[in-house]
Amino acid sequence: MRAVWLREFGGPEMLVPGPAPDPVPGPGQVLIDVAHVNITFVETLFRATGFGPFPSAPLPVIPGNGVGGVIGAVGPDADPGLVGRRVVTSTGGSGAYAEQVVVDATAPVPVPEGLPLDEAVAVLADGRTALMLTDAAGLRAGDRVLVEAAAGGVGSLLVQLAGAAGTRVIGLAGGARKVALLPRWGAQVAVDYLKPNWADRVRAEIGGVDVVFDGVGGTVGRAAFELLDPGGRMLSFGLASGEWADISEETAAERGVTLIRPTPTPQQLRAYTERALAEAAAGRLRAVIGQRFPLERAADAHAAIGSRATVGKTLLDLR
Ligand SMILES: NC(=O)c1ccc[n+]([C@@H]2O[C@H](COP(=O)([O-])OP(=O)(O)OC[C@H]3O[C@@H](n4cnc5c(N)ncnc54)[C@H](OP(=O)(O)O)[C@@H]3O)[C@@H](O)[C@H]2O)c1
């Protein structure tokens, strides 16, 4: 089958297309003919350094963790009635940049009728994450909610979910092109945080904030923390800047801010995935597919993400 291999950690050019053995489903497993692969930011960190939440797979490895497609075959002891189902699934941390994947028959999540597969793949990881974060934040109508990297994969969904919860959303993004997108997803205030004094601009527009969704970390995350009023909640879930915001419990307590770090069980993660698909099928959550590349151009997709050129979700298309 066609696949993309990572043979050494390093730049995007380390992602090289090449053949891989056709996988065969074993007992209790299913084979999925992949139509689309989602790429998450953390996969670019893994490619560059080996860092990441994935179980460490020895190199060379087929990277990637999220696909959607059609079940093409089942192994012994798996229900043959599954063949032909449209599904999305995580692949256990690796193996997704490929034409076919094999997973346990219990892993795939059915795609609701009417929801295109590419949109389902686009909300698979980001929708699950955004729903988990908005639940954990306990959003209340009228809250002022600051979303960093608001034009990104998770960010564009956080803006939508927070807006739908009746909050006032302040979206932060890098550059005029991205900032211009934020109001259409529900941001009331949209600020370019590549400009100096962006935090003063937020203060002038809306005063302090009640919730920060911090997927960037570093100086941006720390400046966002400073905008929180007493009673505020800070959710740090990423380090796109290369560094966590690193706010200590003591510092937060002095400011009357709660640091929230959701730790979902696998069952909860699955439930969030199912909810994300249902919300997308109902039209309440809009997948933002900003870029698509053929599988063989995974390196170009990673380069685009690493240079902050992307908006919304980046997909690899196989069919
Ligand atoms: N996808 C998930 O399911 C998931 C799960 C857990 C955690 N996370 C974390 O959530 C954050 C967002 O993930 P995502 O997959 O949705 O990615 P993304 O937001 O689509 O891409 C990352 C964004 O971070 C911003 N950024 C700020 N400083 C950057 C820098 N120095 N280099 C590159 N980008 C920079 C860029 O937006 P601007 O140009 O607008 O600043 C960039 O587009 C990441 O920190 C990720 O690790 C994601």
From TrEMBL:
Listed name of the protein: NADPH:quinone reductase
Pfam families assigned to the protein according to its UniProt record, in alphabetical order: ADH_N, ADH_zinc_N_2
Ranges of residues in domain Enoyl reductase (ER): 10-316
Domain of life: Bacteria
Family matches, as SUPFAM superfamilies: GroES-like, NAD(P)-binding Rossmann-fold domains
